[in-house]
């Protein structure tokens, strides 16, 4: 059995495209995970993506995770709500001053509180100033990402409100699969 999945690719071509969201109420901080940790990267990936069918990295080995998090210029920015990880943005440096926001999202318990818009704004700004933290890297000329019809219902609206514009749409058939979840019953309250 298969399902139809629409994937949208969006971009910003100037830092002036970014339309930041207001900071949420409360004690939300965004911090770069400066020590590359495959365990932490995998935790964030499964905790954020488990209910929206993020599966492409589930089969990766420890060595493959390590390669991802140790790439020069790769960064993970984590939102913390009163000391608890709430979500993250993963930046992937590419050739010619391009930065991809590879993964972005919130752990289910933190959605709907204004953290996502703030985290996306902050992560996008860090994509634009990535070269400032990585000597020898070309200044960022383009920031892009993709989202799909399996992602959270507010994902596309958040990207658009932050100033991302659509540049490509693709429709594919993919095998039907259940959302893996971080573990059964997670997120239910």
Automatic annotation (TrEMBL):
InterPro entries from the UniProt entry: Acyl_CoA_acyltransferase (IPR016181), GNAT_dom (IPR000182)
Tree of life domain: Bacteria
Segments forming domain N-acetyltransferase: 28-182
Entry's transmembrane regions: none
Pfam families for the chain: Acetyltransf_1
Name used for this protein in its record: GNAT family N-acetyltransferase
Classification of source organism: Bacteria, Bacillati, Actinomycetota, Actinomycetes, Kitasatosporales
């Amino acid at each position: 059995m298969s399902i139809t999945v629409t994937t949208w690719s969006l971009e910003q071509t100037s830092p002036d495209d970014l339309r930041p969201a207001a900071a949420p109420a409360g004690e939300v901080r965004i911090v770069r995970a400066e020590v590359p940790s495959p365990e932490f990267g995998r935790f964030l990936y499964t905790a954020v993506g488990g209910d929206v069918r993020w599966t492409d990295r589930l089969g990766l080995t420890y060595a493959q995770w390590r390669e991802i998090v140790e790439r020069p210029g790769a960064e993970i920015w984590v939102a913390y709500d009163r000391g608890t990880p709430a979500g993250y943005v993963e930046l992937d440096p590419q050739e010619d001053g391009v930065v991809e926001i590879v993964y972005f999202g919130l752990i289910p318990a933190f959605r709907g509180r204004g953290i996502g818009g703030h985290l996306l704004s902050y992560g996008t700004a860090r994509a634009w100033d990535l070269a400032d933290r990585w000597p020898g890297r070309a200044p960022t000329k383009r920031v892009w990402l993709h989202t799909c019809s399996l992602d959270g219902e507010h994902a596309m609206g958040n990207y658009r409100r932050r100033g991302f514009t659509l540049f490509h749409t693709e429709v594919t058939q993919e095998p039907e699969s259940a959302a893996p979840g971080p573990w059964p019953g997670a997120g239910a309250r």
